[in-house]
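agent: user wants the full assembly modeled, not chains individually. Plan: 1) parse entity lines 2) check alphabet per entity 3) run joint structure prediction 4) return tokens. Steps 1-2 passed, two entities, 614 residues total. Proceeding.
--- entities ---
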Amino acid sequence: MTNSSSTPAIRFNQVSRYFGEVKAVDQVDLEVHDGEFFAMLGPSGSGKTTCLRMIAGFDRPTNGEIYLYGQDVSNLPPYERSVNTVFQDYALFPHMNVGDNIAYGLMIKKVPKAEREKRVDEMLDLVQLKGFASRKPSQLSGGQRQRVALARALINHPKVLLLDEPLGALDLKLRQQMQVELKAIQKRVGITFIFVTHDQEEAITMSDRIAVFNHGKIEQVGSPAEIYERPASTFVAGFVGTSNLVSGEVAKRITGSEQTFSIRPEKIHLGQMEQTITTSMLFVNGIIRDVVYLGLYTRYLVEVDGGIDLVVVEQNLKTTSMDVLAARGQKVKLYWQKDHISYVGA
Amino acid sequence: MHSKKAPLPLTIAAIGTLLFLHVPMLIIFLYTFTPDETTYTFPLPGFTTKWFGVALGRADLWRSLILSLQVATVATIAALILGTLAAAAVYRSNFFGRESISFLLVLPIALPGIVSGIALRTAMGGMDIPFSFWTIVIGHATFCVVVVYNNVLARFRRTSASMIEASMDLGANSFQTFRYVVLPNIATALLAGGMLAFALSFDEVIVTTFTAGQQTTLPIWIFSQLTRPRDRPVTNVVATFVILITFIPIFLAQRISAGASDTEGENK
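--- prediction returned ---
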């Protein structure tokens, strides 16, 4: 709040965490800006949760330093960091009611009871659980427990709020609702949120920026649009959304260079063989091998010259299922904007 | 759930088992009121409550009773502390030989008392430790620790590990975390384990005979009365008293563990 926005909320300087021979986190550099909604995205075992635990203080880096608004916190215990966590299993205290759970941090800090109650009420209001203070966690639904966990963390006004797979245990409907709500709460309190997820869609919908983790390293950091449209590596291209990776001979035939590039299925247009191609376009000819009608859109599998398959997705704006299914076996010309491809490292 | 009535043979078997277990105790209870002080005759030759008075007046009996209560109390306290620490260590950290340690901790309760007894006596003799109140306590603690350990470990395993992290995350240091989160969560397990430990210690004979010096705990006092047929009903009075003293904590311990598992089931 008093921190200047130029100081990063969290800065990793060459942070590593080894478990014996296993490099869970390997020389990671990272900056999370003040007030940001930041996602750490990656498959399980990619090191994202270990990074979160090191920020919280449950784990210490083997090497490197972690800075919280400029202060080196690498070796501080969890209770000496102004960071709070929403746990994946919520970790509510079963022997306390909702009000006492939320007030726990203030009780430890010996905040007077009157103020505690006032702030608990504010928090219950924020997470829309007014009137639930005297319930036990066992009497709440999953979504309500999640809100309590959030309120219990936010009441301490942490500098950074960590969320470990916050929506993982909720069903789809509730998850989508909570995505919107979490985002709104973050805007309202203005605290930096860092959340860990393996769900790329969740990361894209909710965050300002995303760090994509793989094998203990960060593959790419960027806005959801950057990550999606300009994946920096084959891993990112494959993990975030679906992507066509083209390399070698086929790549050379299309772009004139053997360098691997990725092109998203929805960026590719299906055209007749006689379709004219402008200079800002790239194209390749092929045969439609398979058609999957999915209601809103149709997914085509096209075998292109050179022998590889490309996935193409087209919205069913004018076509019906009869039309698209009849397309199987047709010869087509695939074309797309030159600047829609993204060259990726190996 | 089972609305059907149990089949007749099963009912008979159940009643038979209960009678088999409890009739002897009823007999003891019955003969506390006999006026005949040396033999058991049925029906009772009369009815008297004078043995309660006689028992009250026996100083040796009182000394044994107090000693037994003291031993059981100290052994239980030791078991609560050591058992909880052992359970915490085995639950929280993953060190080399953890499973073996867990096994070694549970072993004393499976081992015949006579083996533990002779082993303790030999060890204490070898180290020139004089037999005293404390040697009895140590002997009892070997099996009391186990009950507490088992109860607390089971509770830890049902408790979410992230709860401790959550407490630290919210600003509580280790001591505060223990005080406000760990202790309330294992309290009923401690109570149940502690009462079981107390009951076990209170009526222990075998290990005690090996580790006691001149002291006579209540069970040993009762045992010694067997060879002196006079005042036999006094022994019955004491036995009845022991049954009561043991019954209450075991009954409560069962109620508490049963209640705790019910509520924890709801959490899932």
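agent: reporting back. Chain B has eleven helices and no strands. The CA atoms of residues 99 and 237 of chain B lie 45 Å apart.
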